[in-house]
């Protein structure tokens, strides 16, 4: 089971949006996928049009009020399920985070999911606090969205350093899958400059080829409480970006061997 940690040092850069749309794209690519919300804000539920803290989830599993299988939310796609954060009282977020990051709690919950899913996408809260650190310790891969703006670029080193530290101290198999440029605006010189700097300063494939543009369709989708693909009967072309991203990431997670990969496929039969 691959555990993909979606994390970034900055808030509001598109972690939840990417987790949601990418999770659905993984499912469409045939992977049994779980999107697991680790952010007490409950943004995954809100993005799916649910009322604030409407359904039980992780919080109830941790208190023992609910069994894990009972709070896994099924979706329209049989390959995709969602585990929401649950009914976390905004006044006790600190307590929730403390419980989630205590000892082997998170890895224990992930352990129970082994065999049930091929990919678990962990939507982390903003910043490099204890929830993100625990997620990195329990994860197999990291995906970092980087908002195409100078400040985000300057702080990229912080998450790269945390990933290095976790790898050195706790989780030697943690792999940085890549940094994905998000909210890219080709009309804005600063945005273009960030993209250029990324490609020149971080060679070696860390920066993913897929770029997520700044586009109002994302806001429209969140208004409608759906991933891009399901926001309307005829999905916006932008939704295909996530199919491409899912394919690229799966190739990085499980590189094809030369025999599998090579050779033309005859068109004529
Ligand atoms: N590429 C994009 N273009 C335009 N708007 C976007 C894009 N990606 C996300 N948004 C919008 O920006 C806001 C923040 O996105 P999102 O919640 O995914 O970020 P986040 O990193 O998860 O935030 P947080 O750090 O608070 O968890 C949302 O309103 C979302 O709809
Ligand atoms: Mg979020």
Automatic annotation (TrEMBL):
SUPFAM superfamilies: P-loop containing nucleoside triphosphate hydrolases. Residues 1-175 form the AAA domain. PANTHER family: P-LOOP CONTAINING NUCLEOSIDE TRIPHOSPHATE HYDROLASE (PTHR13696), PARA FAMILY PROTEIN CT_582 (PTHR13696:SF52). This is Chromosome partitioning protein. It comes from Chondromyces crocatus.
């Amino acid at each position: 089971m691959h555990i993909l940690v979606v994390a970034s040092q900055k808030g509001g850069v598109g972690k939840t949006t990417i987790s949601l749309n990418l999770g659905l794209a993984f499912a469409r690519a045939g992977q049994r996928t779980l999107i697991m919300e680790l952010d007490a804000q409950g943004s995954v539920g809100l993005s799916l049009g649910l009322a604030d803290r409407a359904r039980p989830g992780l919080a109830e599993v941790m208190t023992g009020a609910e069994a894990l299988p009972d709070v896994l939310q099924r979706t329209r796609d049989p390959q995709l399920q969602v585990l929401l954060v649950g009914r976390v009282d905004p006044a006790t977020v600190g307590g929730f985070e403390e419980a989630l990051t205590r000892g082997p709690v998170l890895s224990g919950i992930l352990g129970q999911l082994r065999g049930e899913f091929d990919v678990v996408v962990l939507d982390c809260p903003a910043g490099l606090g204890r929830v993100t650190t625990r997620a990195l310790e329990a994860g197999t891969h990291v995906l970092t969205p980087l908002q195409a703006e100078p400040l985000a670029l300057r702080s990229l080193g912080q998450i790269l350093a945390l990933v290095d530290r976790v790898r050195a101290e706790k989780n030697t198999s943690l792999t940085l899958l890549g940094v994905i440029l998000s909210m890219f605006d080709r009309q804005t010189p600063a945005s273009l400059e960030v993209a250029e700097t990324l490609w020149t300063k971080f060679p070696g494939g860390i920066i993913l080829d897929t770029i997520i543009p700044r586009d109002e369709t994302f806001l429209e989708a969140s208004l409608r409480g759906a991933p891009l693909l399901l926001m309307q009967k005829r999905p916006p072309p932008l939704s295909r970006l996530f199919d491409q991203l899912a394919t690229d990431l799966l190739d990085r997670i499980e590189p094809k061997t030369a025999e599998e990969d090579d050779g033309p496929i005859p068109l004529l039969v």
